[in-house]
Give the backbone structure.
Amino acid sequence: MRKKISILGSTGSIGRQALEVLEKLGDCFEVVALAAGNNTELLNEQIKKFKPRYAYAADKNAIEGAKYVSMEEICSNKENDIILVAVSGRIGLRPTITAINNGINIALANKETLVMAGDIVMPLAKSKGVNILPVDSEHSAIHQCIKDLSQVDKLIITASGGPFLRKTIDEMKNATVEQALAHPRWNMGKKITVDSATLMNKGLEVIEAHHLFNMSYDQIDVVVHPQSIVHSAVEYKDGSVIAQLGLPSMHIPIQYAITYPNRIEGIKSKSFSFSEIARLDFEAPDWNKFKALKLAYNAGKIGGTASVCLNAANEEAVFAFLKGEIKLFDIIDSVEKMMQKHVVIKNPSLDDIFELDNEIRIKARELFK
Ligand code: NDP
Ligand code: MG
């Protein structure tokens, strides 16, 4: 039977790669709906090729060949077996909740969903019997390594270290936007690429892992691994460590999430060769240079709305950096300032979260004036 899928964020880095995977999988999948933001030209090409019945874009009149629906409507359509949430930013949260409420499984790329509201999303998914299948490569790796969560002692998340791994703090302070966007291993959207340069991305992933795998922050380690071949690992109670390896490609975790629990040849183009890779290096992260990582651990440990503040303040600062308004290290300084001022709400509702998110963004932008 063909599996029915919709993709939110089909024109983005993950969305485009997901469609490449679907193309390889051929008849196994039917695309029900595609959603994009402003890139309607690409969306319309995708509609021509994948023939979804429904589509969403910011400009509804620009859509050709599919019926316009909202992202909420896409996520309410129970025809879907799975929805890939690959929009960037907070926009992913509400549709994800709607899909869960409708009993639809989620392939989750959008990390903001769990960083902002993991304490709401994960219990809701459990109560509705919905699978949240991680697309982020580290979490996909951990998911693939875990047989019995109750026997796991520790999660080990790998980080490539980004473009500034071998740079000094001074060189990093004066980094240009271009340098920050030159990621050595992954080709991703701009926001996540800047986060990878500050290692905030790894911090967000630690919070994501805490929610996905119900692990305390003391049980989550980060290790720098520049080759990005070991995508993450878990340590079992008896000391045995199981890691997931593969060439650095998002195609594999995307395909695993949407075909789970099956493994299909699909996107595989080349066999893995240890001898070609030759060496794998690991080192502890430099906590002084990458303060974002510490900030994220702290936000996670504080709990409640602390990570809402972290995420919103960071996102606004990254946008300001991309516009050339602030320097790279100002991102982290402004997040730290916002975190110090933030009054944490312990058990926020979804409305509290969105309200706070707005407030923090306004206040964060004031810092850059
Ligand atoms: P991109 O910036 O490349 O793509 C974002 C997508 O979201 C685009 O399709 C964009 O549409 C769409 N979008 C943005 N705003 C809106 C909106 N208001 N309404 C509807 N659609 C919108 O990001 P990535 O693909 O890199 O990342 C997507 C998510 O996945 C992020 O949360 C990221 O953290 C996560 N992720 C990404 C990885 C990667 O390798 N890229 C790895 C792991 C996680 P348009 O372009 O048409 O405006
Ligand atoms: Mg990742």
